[in-house]
Design goal:
The structure is a single chain. By secondary structure, the protein is an alpha+beta fold. The chain has one helix and five strands, in the order H-E-E-E-E-E. It is elongated and about 85 Å long.
């Protein structure tokens, strides 16, 4: 019985060591990926909070990568959607 406990303990220790050794490259890979390919976030700055039908919507778009302006994207897409979910207009704008 004592031999089984020693064998079980050795196998458990070996498995824990293997899990720690494998987890380290996965963790460093995720950190590198998040650093090199930061998530882009888009912000629309509108001139008014509500609009009537037929009014012109003036907006300014901000595309950020982390806290800095995004440099990878060249085009900004906006889908204008009604209250019931119908796409009213699809605008495509170049990023300067």
């Amino acid at each position: 019985m004592k031999r089984y406990i020693q064998l079980f303990s050795a196998l458990l220790a070996l498995q824990l060591f293997f899990l720690i050794a494998v987890a380290q490259p996965i963790d460093s890979t995720l950190v590198k990926y998040s650093r090199d390919y930061a998530q882009e976030k888009a912000w629309l700055h509108l001139d008014k909070s509500t609009y009537n039908p037929g009014e012109t919507i003036w907006f300014k778009a901000y595309l950020l990568e982390g806290f800095l302006p995004a440099t990878g994207s060249k085009t900004f897409y906006v889908d204008w959607v009604s209250d019931n979910g119908e796409v009213l207009y699809h605008s495509v704008s170049p990023l300067v």
